[in-house]
């Protein structure tokens, strides 16, 4: 997976947050972005290992600073590891960016007090695993991409039925592959919401 700054490239191995939490951060987006960049530079200095290929990915674009999906993912390479720190806990993009800054700062604290091996162990859970080739997310397949809340079981079932009517191999333009992708998406969506 090659992360893009826009639109949001969310790692497939990190679940999305269903219920957003209130934030007490008072940091604007430019300051939060600066905090993340400077903390990554300091982390590189502290660890003696380069941080390269930084991509801060979100749905913020020119004219849209309050997207429906406020998630943010910071992708980078450190000591040969492809890492992604992704946060969508808060309803504002700048709060999710600031949360990422605090996560990186936490790794710096681990480095100072626990050493390099502790940080490597921590980062192993944040490895940016590539998505399977051409595997679209269930949200994209079912038409929920960009929603800021998780759909209900009923909404997932309805989206599946609506799309199955067009994707079925007996329909013009339908195929076995399209139905298989749709079925997989429905199953993944229901698993993620706990149904």
| Average pLDDT rating | 87
* Helix and strand sequence: HEEEHHHHH
Low-confidence stretches: none
Strand order of the largest sheet: 1-2-3
The secondary-structure class comes to alpha+beta
The helix count comes to 6
Major pleated sheet: 3 strands, antiparallel
What is the number of E strands? 3
Ends: how far apart? 28 Å
Question: What gross morphology would you assign?
Answer: elongated
Describe the structure.
The chain is an alpha+beta fold and 195 residues long. The protein is built from 6 helices and 3 strands. It has helices spanning 29-47, 93-114, 116-123, 138-142, 153-167, 176-193, and strands at residues 51-58, 72-78, 81-87. Strands 1-2-3 form a 3-stranded antiparallel beta sheet. Helix 1 packs parallel to helix 2 (93-114) and helix 5 (153-167) packs antiparallel against helix 6 (176-193). It is elongated. The protein starts with 28 loop residues before the first helix and ends with a helix. The mean pLDDT is 87.
Outline:
This protein is α+β, with helices and mostly antiparallel strands and 195 residues long. Helices cover 45% and strands 11% of the residues.
Topology:
Elements: H1 29-47, E1 51-58, E2 72-78, E3 81-87, H2 93-114, H3 116-123, H4 138-142, H5 153-167, H6 176-193
Antiparallel strand pairs: 1-2, 2-3
Helix pairs in contact: 1-2, 2-3, 5-6
